[in-house]
Amino acid sequence: MHFQGKSFLTISDFNRKEVEYLIDFAIHLKHLKKNNIPHQYLKGQNIALLFEKSSTRTRAAFTVAANDLGAAPEFLGANDIQLGKKESVQDTAKILGSMFDGIEYRGASQAVVADLAEYSGIPVWNGLTDDWHPTQMIGDFMTIKEAFGTFDGIKLVYCGDGRNNVANSLLVTAAILGVDVTIASPESLFPEKSYIQMAQEFAKESGSAVEITADIHTAVNGANVIYTDVWVSMGEEEHFEERVNLLLPYQVNESLLENVSGDFIFMHCLPAFHDTNTVYGKNVAEEYGIKEMEVTSEVFNADYAKQFEQGENRMHSIKAIMAATNGHLFIPDLK
Ligand code: CP
Ligand code: NVA
Fold first, then answer.
1. 260 C-alpha to center of ligand 1: Å?
2. Is 320's pLDDT higher than 80?
3. 59-63, 82-86, 305-309: the lowest-pLDDT one
4. Do you find a cis peptide bond into 191, omega within 30 degrees of 0?
5. What is the pTM of this model?
């Protein structure tokens, strides 16, 4: 596969060497940025940032990464353009493709991001759909590589809502990279079969151990990475009560972490509900009597918690993805 001109729609479109390359390139770009070494691989380009769902990190990362690469980003929010409402995705894609050099899309539908790629004729980067969060994976596994120096012998345990975009993406990315991965969640929130099968296929080649379990206490034993995400993803806000009841036993707290032996880091893609300093956090405290959801403040503020490094790495990794797919770089075929 050649990176140039390719879209980044799901992580499963990339093989182990390609994913490793993007991670290592992101680490290199971080070094360039920290040392003020210019890297304007997209000089003169224009990048459209389509956001149908809210974002802090992804929007900020694409904007700063585009600027650092010498490209001009343009934000087109849900209420700014006609996408799918008064103009079809196909027609919008054709117009954007005639003016821009690349498109980021965040929204619910994987079909929309795929259509944008098909009809725009330019690289499209998936900034999160209900199914996948692939750019998050390059930054996350970059953070793991920075922490441990290797993926060999690493075990990642994801605790919580096992069937959201982040859980799906972690399951499959870990399997591609040969990282052992466990999804610990209530049975009703296990990942869909297709994601489990996809991970098992990749694991045959990479040697990764793939496990899906409801037994969280056993699952975290031997973990090097404990990962969680919100219990209620964007677009599912009516499910708070059900999720609080189902997922409280899967909260990442000090008592759970007593079951982990050895060195580990905590990760969270953010935003996180670890206190009542948010509107949703306050409502949940008032209605269900819990002040912390997927992670406690004690864990969130511990030395082993790497979520802010992880957040910064979104920028370096998104830069790597944009530069590799649109920067006309020399990248040998990675098989
Ligand atoms: N992790 C992540 O995608 O953050 P945002 O929703 O703030 O972009
Ligand atoms: N699962 C979360 C991830 C946010 C980055 C959501 O979709 O809201």
1. 28
2. yes
3. 82-86
4. no
5. 0.98
